[in-house]
Amino acid sequence: MAMLEITLRVSDGNRAAAAVVYAKYRQPFLDQAAGAKSKQLLVRDEDVQVLHVFTSTADAQAYLSSDLFTADVVRELAPLLDADPEVRVYDEA
């Protein structure tokens, strides 16, 4: 198993719109991304995190270059972000 963690800096005024983007692409992610197991949205005062679980790190890396991620999710989220996202991939030990 592998986890993809994307941390987003989103101002309070844009959080509702960012949540709409998350909801819009949650099911397509689960249906289309190779090895996708789950996707969760975590909201904290300082940021928003999206946690994706995959069967392997290769699947997580492939998703980052997929059209679903680059052409859809990133395109819609980019105007809502206060800074570049932090992206981390973890491999289950």
Structure write-up:
The structure is a single chain. The protein has 93 residues and is of the alpha+beta class. The chain has one domain: 2-Layer Sandwich (Alpha-Beta Plaits). A hairpin with a 4-residue loop joins strand 2 (36-43) and strand 3 (48-54). The termini are close together. The model has no long low-confidence stretch (mean pLDDT 95). Helix 1 (12-32) packs antiparallel against helix 3 (67-77). The chain has a 4-stranded antiparallel beta sheet with strand order 2-3-1-4. The chain is globular. It has helices at 12-32, 57-64, 67-77, and strands at residues 2-8, 36-43, 48-54, 86-91.
Summarize the structure.
By secondary structure, the chain is an alpha+beta fold.
The amount of helix comes to: 40-55%
Reported by name, the CATH topology is Alpha-Beta Plaits
Average of the residue pLDDT scores: 95
How far the N terminus sits from the C terminus, by CA atoms, comes to 9 Å
Helix-strand sequence? EHEEHHE
Q: Which second-level CATH architecture applies?
A: 2-Layer Sandwich
The CATH class, by name, is: Alpha Beta
Any descriptors?
four-stranded antiparallel sheet; Alpha-Beta Plaits; 93 residues; 3 helices; 4 strands; alpha+beta; single chain
Map the helices and strands.
Blueprint: E1 2-8, H1 12-32, E2 36-43, E3 48-54, H2 57-64, H3 67-77, E4 86-91
Antiparallel strand pairs: 1-3, 1-4, 2-3
Helix pairs in contact: 1-3
